[in-house]
From TrEMBL, chain A:
Keyword Cell inner membrane included in the entry's annotation: no
Domain Metalloprotease TldD/E central: 157-252
InterPro entries linked to this entry: Metalloprtase-TldD/E_C, Metalloprtase-TldD/E_cen_dom, Metalloprtase-TldD/E_N, Peptidase_U62_metallo, TAT_signal, TldD/PmbA_N, TldD/PmbA_sf
Recorded superkingdom: Bacteria
Domain called Metalloprotease TldD/E N-terminal: residue spans: 62-126
Protein name: TldD/PmbA family protein
Organism: Aquimarina litoralis
Metalloprotease TldD/E C-terminal domain mapped to chain residues: 292-537
UniProt family annotation: Belongs to the peptidase U62 family.
Entry-linked SUPFAM superfamilies: Putative modulator of DNA gyrase, PmbA/TldD
Length: 546, 438
């Protein structure tokens, strides 16, 4: 299924960061989700079949990942349930190094015979490719962890919550939107559980249980007389949490400008849908923006996507080195810039950190998909570029000895490679509220939520839209704007960063569908920040007459 | 081997259907084998092989449906999967938009399977990479490419007597060539059902030449320019436009195809009268399957004729609601071209820009089908009928509707991502900013 088909399927519309393979897997009943799956002792035995076969065929390294991926999706529109999908995908992926070359094969036959055949295939691929190999794979050493486990710290497992409860919640949100003036509403709830078992010839046997959730909707308002239609998407974020994210706790809510509700670690979908309908209607008559330079006050659920595209991607070492040149592209943040230890990525208040351990984030795991214990590290400190994101076969190229622990594969069926960890902007040290960001702006725009996004293949030039826009004049919000997009250059933009709210405003944006690699794979990642101001950014008007 | 013959598939599905106790039952059976190789920095990086087969059962009681899937096809497994689908159907809410499975259908014989592609080996893939890397290195250029091949089958049968079967193969190739000094970049893409038509060295040479030609690009002011769009440059915008041909969203008033005051643009002229777009599963250059996942036959369908919208896609449910015949979405599209070669188009251009491809295309405003994105991997300034020099990449903000209203000349058609798209010369294409990216 392609990204576009997925959007069509869900009716959620473009703008959401959506990619294909989330729907991979076989349909099963909701009850079958509760089946515990293969016993861990058998997993260990099966993994050892792969590792021993690989070694006997001449592999100098091998790893095996036995994965069980359980997903549940609920789709509704207006007063109807469109679909409830439960899927399960189970199999093993085997990666080997033979003659200094990678080989990979996978199979859903998780038995001795199936595993031996797949291992043979992986070795055959490595051998065929080693004839044209010019750079031998060098792996950074990793400690043997023995037999260990890790679990997302959830309070409510989505698998224990009845489907009817989930359906009722979405239909209540739809009803609230329709009552408040929406013409159409599509809503969806995506729940993911990755049960991953990893074993390698380095002596680790790692069992992990990873959970994620994403409630979302698109509300559309139409003015038939003018033929205009406008939509407003949910202000939720996908999270590395259990079903407790849907509790709508008052303690996790923040008040934004103009009646906007903002959510931290708990989401109130009915409340958000109510406001969404009102704002979608407002957008139909909102003032069209006048193009020019504006100070932008960017809300975290908006800024997260800008961080993702302009910081997360350019600092992926595989892009920097050219491994992604044929697909996602390369990077402006080249090794020579980094080696100066003086490359001004942003203004002095800009501190960007990579983190695979952050509680509640989509990227949080105990160990990555090549058995490296996860951690947190600096990418940009006091505005200076300090490091990249790198895995075992890359770190030697930047003279480092230890993998950063950000290797990931979307399933047992795909080979693991370097993926973006959570990349976040640290909150400001001084106590600032959202009002403090706005009050000294003469001519500006407050932007909340994700919108259109596009950036070049080296991550210089970007253009971002948003969900809602408010005009700021002389320190005050004076009304809603529309047709807004800002264009900038990554380094120029981050150097225009003028003021950051403190930790009390910190929230996470997330995406289930970060895409990279060929064949393309998705990865889920979060980006935290507090409301932040960027001065003098170029805004264009995207309205057209046809 | 994950690929069943027509008879084998039929037997498995008949067996599964014999276990059904539901009002209706529909079975989809598919399998595929695929292999790939990836290279970068003039050496191979990763490669893999995948094998997969699945049987999906949808059982329905009244308007309640349940779906279950399995990848083992012995009698016990088939019995189990049918039973599970029926249990799920009984538990599920009524779907007000449920449509009973179709009865027997007549399908054209597809031409999507080619033995040459089904026989590809790991050594063949390594040779593809090699014939790209070798010539690149000789020209101080670095190759990063990807070759993927797959062969598979899909089959369908239901309790109302429908049976469908198809086999298909596909091979696709892309390579990015970057000059070793980092100032030039070229790219090429190829896709075929029949891999014997593919020449990796020939394709790679185009990208290598572009990498060398695009070195040290000059910046020119963004603005409105006459552009020559190679098919790889326009296919993304055209594909997004095709996606708007959905009758339901048009009727609901939330699409570019919706009309002021209600109704749709069906029958209205929306682009230049030389624009003709259709789909044809039997076109020998871009064949597709002749039926879709609901068992509807796919036939030649005209979408735009002389600039006028001739058809919108109607799902079976929406067609019934509106009292019209269903019109299924196609698997690819064909846009009529002209006689002009790329060289002819360049020769006939006084001032303009040649665009190899557009990248990172995203919707900006669904109301006007406005999209943004960037040029990439070979953008050149044309003056007095000649390529004068490479130019720095641009960001564009443009609608395919505006683009096709500003059509100057249609060139020859090329297969691209399963579609046939002509070279096009377009006036007043809107570039809004410059990018430093190479």
């Amino acid at each position: 299924m392609k990204r576009r088909d997925f959007i069509q399927y869900t009716g959620l519309g473009a703008g959401a960061l959506m990619m294909p393979s989330l729907l991979l897997g076989n349909d099963i009943s909701a009850e079958a989700l509760l089946n515990p799956g293969m016993d861990i002792a058998i997993k260990k035995r099966m993994a050892d079949v792969a590792l021993n076969t690989a070694k006997s065929l001449g592999a100098t390294y091998a790893d095996a990942r036995i994965g069980r991926y359980l997903n549940q999706y609920v789709f509704t529109r207006e007063d109807k349930v469109q679909n409830v999908v439960n899927t399960e995908s189970f199999g093993i992926g085997i990666r080997v190094i033979v003659n200094g070359t990678w080989g990979f094969a996978s199979t859903n036959s998780v038995n001795e015979d199936g595993i031996k055949k797949a291992t043979d295939q992986a070795v055959a691929i490595a051998k065929a490719n080693s004839k044209i190999q010019k750079e031998e794979v060098k792996l950074a050493p990793v400690a043997s962890h023995g037999e260990v486990s890790w679990k997302t710290p959830i309070k409510k497992d989505f698998k224990d919550v009845p489907v009817s409860e989930k359906v009722d919640l979405l239909l209540s949100a739809n009803a609230a939107a329709l009552k408040n003036g929406a013409n159409y509403v599509n809503s969806g709830l995506f729940m993911v559980n990755e049960q991953k078992y990893f074993a390698s010839t380095d002596g680790s046997y790692i069992d992990q249980d990873v959970h994620r959730i994403w409630p979302t909707f698109t509300v559309t308002a139409i003015d038939k007389s003018t033929g205009k239609f406008k939509s407003r998407q949910a202000m939720s974020a996908p999270m590395g949490m259990g079903y407790e994210y849907m509790d709508g706790l008052a303690s996790e809510k923040l008040k934004g400008p103009e009646g906007l509700n903002l959510y931290r670690n708990s989401y109130d979908i009915v409340e958000d849908a109510t406001v969404a309908a009102q704002q979608a209607k407002q957008r139909l008559t909102a003032k069209s923006v006048e193009a020019g330079k504006y100070d932008l006050v960017l809300e975290p659920n908006h800024l997260g996507l800008t961080i993702h595209e302009s910081v997360g991607h350019p600092l992926e070492l595989d892009r920097v080195l050219g491994y992604e040149a044929n697909y996602a592209g390369t990077s402006f943040a080249t090794l020579d810039k980094w080696k100066t230890k003086n490359f001004k990525y942003g203004s002095e208040i800009v501190n960007l950190v990579a983190d695979k351990t952050q509680v509640g984030s989509l990227g949080a795991v105990g160990y990555d998909d090549e058995g490296v214990k996860t951690k947190k590290w600096d990418l940009v400190r006091n505005g200076i570029l300090t490091n990249y994101q790198a895995i075992r076969d890359q770190v030697h190229m930047i003279d480092q000895k230890e993998s950063h622990g950000c290797c990931y594969s979307q399933s047992w069926n795909d080979v693991q490679f370097q993926r973006m960890p959570n990349v976040s902007l640290e909150p400001g040290k001084e106590k600032y509220s959202i009002d403090d960001m706005i009050k000294d702006v003469e001519k500006g725009i407050y932007i909340a939520g994700r919108g259109s996004y596009s950036i070049d293949q080296q991550r210089y030039n970007f253009q971002f839209g948003g969900t809602v826009f408010y005009e700021i004049k002389n320190g005050k919000i004076v009304g809603m704007l529309d047709d807004v997009a800002y264009q900038s250059n990554t380094q120029e933009f981050w150097n225009s960063c003028a003021k950051i709210c403190d930790k009390d405003d910190y929230r996470m944006f997330g995406s289930f569908f970060d895409g990279k690699g060929q064949p393309s794979q998705i990865s889920a990642v979060s980006h935290g920040s507090s409301t932040t101001r960027f001065n003098g950014v170029n805004v264009i008007n995207t309205g057209r007459k046809i | 081997m994950a690929i069943y013959t027509k008879e084998e598939a039929k037997q498995i599905m008949e067996k599964a259907l014999s276990f059904s106790t539901a009002d209706t039952c529909e079975i989809n059976l598919s399998g595929s084998e695929s292999g790939n190789i990836r290279y970068a920095r003039n050496t191979v990086s990763t490669a893999g092989h995948r094998s997969n087969q699945t049987l999906v059962v949808q059982s329905s009681f009244g308007k309640k449906s349940g779906t279950a899937t399995i990848d083992e096809f012995d009698d016990e497994s088939l019995k189990k999967v049918v039973k599970r689908a029926e249990e799920l159907a009984k538990l599920s809410p009524e779907n007000p938009e449920f449509m009973a499975p179709l009865g027997p259908q007549e399908y054209d014989k597809s031409i999507t399977f080619k033995e040459s592609t089904a026989k590809i080996t790991p050594d063949y893939r390594a040779e593809v990479a090699n014939s790209s890397i070798g010539p690149a290195a000789a020209k101080n250029v670095t190759a990063a490419g990807f070759f993927n091949d797959s062969s598979g089958f899909s089959a369908m049968m239901n309790s109302n007597g429908l049976f469908a079967y198809n086999q298909s193969t596909n091979a696709s190739f892309t390579v990015t060539m970057r000059s070793n000094d980092g100032t030039g970049s070229g790219w090429v893409t190829r896709d075929y059902n029949d891999v014997s038509k593919f020449n990796a060295a020939e394709a790679s040479k185009i990208a290598i030449d572009k990498a060398v030609m695009s070195k040290e690009a000059k910046a020119i002011e963004p603005g409105k320019y006459t552009v020559i769009l190679e098919p790889a440059a326009s296919v993304g915008l055209l594909g997004n436009m095709a996606f708007a041909f959905n009758a339901r969203t048009a009727d609901e008033g939330r699409s570019f195809m919706s009309k002021e005051g209600g109704g749709t643009k069906l029958g209205e002229k929306i682009v230049d009268e030389r624009v003709n777009i259709w789909s044809d599963p039997l076109n020998p250059d871009v064949p597709t399957g002749t039926w879709n996942g609901s068992g509807q036959p796919l036939k030649k369908t005209t979408w735009i004729e002389n600039g006028v919208v001739k058809n919108l896609a109607y799902s079976r449910f929406w067609a019934q609601k509106k009292g019209v015949d269903p019109v299924p979405f196609p698997n690819g599209f064909i846009m009529q071209g002209g006689d002009a070669s790329l060289e002819d188009l360049i020769k006939g251009t006084k001032k303009g820009i040649l665009v190899t491809r557009l990248w990172y295309i995203r919707s900006v405003d669904p109301q006007t089908l406005l999209y943004t994105g960037l040029t990439r991997d070979g953008t050149f300034y044309i003056e007095n009928g000649k390529i004068k020099h490479p130019v720095k990449n641009f960001r564009f903000n443009e609608s395919p509707i505006i683009m096709l209203n500003n059509l100057e000349t249609l060139g020859k058609q090329v297969r691209i991502d399963g579609n046939l798209v002509p070279y096009m010369k377009i006036r007043d294409f809107t570039f809004t900013s410059l990018s430093d990216a190479v």
